[in-house]
Amino acid sequence: MKKSGGRRAAKTKTKRRAKDAVLAELVRLEKRVWDMAQRGDADGFRELVPEDGVMIFQSGIVRQAEYIATMKDRTISDYEIGEIRGFLPNATTAILMYEAVRMGEENGKRFPLGTVIESTTWIKRGRRWVAILNQETPQRAE
Predict the structure, then answer these.
(1) Which of 30, 38, 72, 80 lies at a C-alpha separation of 20 to 30 Å from 116?
(2) Integer Rg of the chain from CA
(3) Which residues of the chain register pLDDT less than 50?
(4) Where are the domains of the chain?
(5) pTM of the predicted structure, to 2 decimals
(6) Residue 17: which region, alpha, beta or left (left: phi > 0; alpha: psi -120 to 50)?
(7) Thinking of the domain 5-138, which architecture would CATH place it in?
């Protein structure tokens, strides 16, 4: 009797490749969210962050509509994103994590200096991935 180890290994490899492809697409979308925020592109931002999307910033909890309404009061002059790591706990949920530094101001006040740890939860709705929750946590200085 033959063992099916070869088929299992091939199936595992195929699943891994599919997950890697999803994560690569989500990394692209994550970077696009930053681009839309920097450019103040409300329509583009709305495509990626749904109406029920939530962002948890150092300044507080912001819903998608509030973020878009205050885009004109926020200037992201520059930002740097570190290596983005992620995982898929199931077929319709992904979590991305990375470090970022952003420069700019909101309502005339500079963003707090330093690196933040970003975490974004993406969910698949129909055929589209959307960023449902983003949280930034200031990284402690050592």
Answers:
(1) 72
(2) 18
(3) none
(4) 5-138
(5) 0.87
(6) alpha
(7) Roll (3.10)
